[in-house]
Amino acid sequence: MSLIVWDSAFSEVAIIKILFAGVSPALITVLEPLLQSASDMISVSDGRDALDTFCTEPVDLILMDIDLPVISGLEVAGKIRVIEVMQEMPWTPIVILTPPDSLENPVTVIQAGADDLVSQTAPEDVLKAKILAMVRTSTVRRQLETANGTLNNILNSVSEGVHVLDMRGVIIAENAASMIMFGWEEADNLVGRPGHKTIHHHHADNSIFPVEDCPIHAVLSDGQYRHVQEDVFWRRDNTSFPVEYKCAPLRDNAGNMYGVTVVFRDISERKKAEQHILYLTQHCPLTDLPNRVLFGDRLKQAILNAKRSRTKFALLFVDIDGFKPVNDRHGHAVGDMLLQRIGKRMKQCLRESDTIARIGGDEFVAILPAVNEAEDAVSIAEKLRQSIEEPFAVENCILGVSASIGVAIYPDDGLDEKTLQVNADHAMYQAKSHGGNAVVLNEAGIAGKCASSARP
Questions:
Q1: Are the CB atoms for 170 and 194 separated by under 8 Å?
Q2: Which of 50, 138, 217, 263 is most enclosed, with most CB atoms within 10 A?
Q3: What is the reported pLDDT for 3?
Q4: Start-to-end Cα distance in the chain
């Protein structure tokens, strides 16, 4: 039951619940002026009852005789502290009453779990002051626990992770979202660990991330706010996930820095969306082959690689003979399906390291890296020609087309993208001039060499 104590220092009424254990009625009577509602107290006579009452009736203050029957006051204090820890209960202030002329060592009393001790024969003012001090401590502590509970509820309700480090870079707090993203069940398992070694130890490519290069630790060094658009954090199972994070210094009222707060979010879905958009900008929506943009990038890379390794590569221009009549006769839907099947066949003819791209209409290009001789490129181009020459079954129609293929070789037919493309295109038109369904190597390579077969 509640006791109402007027605390003029706070200019408010503090409503608390006090447990008296082994305290004489005379002493309680002395305290009545301080306690405006003395009938609401809890009073027990021995240590076992005190312990049982504590376990069943939450109290805000315990005033207890040191020489309790059954279980001594110091033993009760010790057991209460164990119970509080085991059951995660709030701390309860304990004042121990000692007999007159007691030789009890105050250190022993405090080590046992009590917060203060006072002689039973102490002046009334001293005793009242002790109780008021404990009331204030209990009230402030309850307010702090309520504020901390509210703050934790707020932090745990947000979807972003909150990761807090002290000035040594040691983790001092994590919210619920953070623990889920890091794959830890309890915040206590993370608190006390070095932050960088726990969640930020490697880059995305699995190379070591030196702590001196870490933006979070840079904030600890210079106190400057930082916003990192893209990085990776590491889970407990040693897998990484992409994050965006903001880190800001923690400062006290005097402006002194005592840590850093990192607010982060998992950007896996954003990365997938970005990659999907990038894929769409680099691929033909009809055939799913690389488009002109990606082809240009691959050609640049092929030139750099060949120049570095002093090797050759081939560039093929492929134009589909007879596609327009098929498109005009059977319609665009059939024409589109035919282009899809042509692209698929050509891709099946090439190596994984090769690139086949559609650059518009019925025009395709291929990059064949690391060809030893021009004849090797002609052989692969001939394989493509023969594949395309085979009839296609589309929408109950048997369609026949062929391919005119021009071949240019780096570095023989050009050292740059434009020259290579002009020569491959020129060779392709030579193939068309021979009646189509042909493979022609640019004349700078093997002059006039042509692999062809006429359509029946």
A1: yes
A2: 50
A3: 42
A4: 107
pLDDT in tens, 209-235: 999 999 999 999 999 999 999 999 999
Task: Please state, in angstroms and rounded to a whole number, the distance separating the CA atoms of residues 311 and 303.
Answer: 9
Strands of 154-299 (E only): list them.
161-166, 171-174, 226-234, 240-251, 257-266
The strand pair at 355-360 and 402-410 is best described as: unpaired
Q: What is the pLDDT of residue 240?
A: 95
Tell me if 321 sits within 8 A of 437, measured CB to CB: yes
> Tokens 């306690």 belong to which residue?
35
Strands 161-166 and 257-266, how do they pair? Answer: antiparallel
The reported pLDDT for the residue numbered 149 is 65
C-alpha span between 433 and 389 (Å, rounded): 18
Residues 6 or more apart from 132 whose CB is under 8 A from it? Answer: 5, 7, 9, 34
By CB atoms closer than 10 A (0-12, 13-18, 19+), residue 136 is middle
3-state secondary structure of 237: coil
**Which of 114-118, 156-160, 437-441 is the least confident region?**
156-160
- Of 408, 411, 381, the C-alpha closest to 306 is 411
Q: Which residues contact 450 (CB under 8 A, 6 or more apart)?
A: 430, 431, 434, 438, 439, 440, 441
Find out whether 166 and 172 touch, Cβ atoms under 8 Å.
yes
Residue 119 has pLDDT above 60, yes or no: yes
pTM over 0.85, yes/no: no
Question: Binning pLDDT at 50, 70 and 90, where does residue 148 land?
Answer: low
Radius of gyration of the chain (CA): 41
Q: Name the token pair of 387.
A: 């594949």
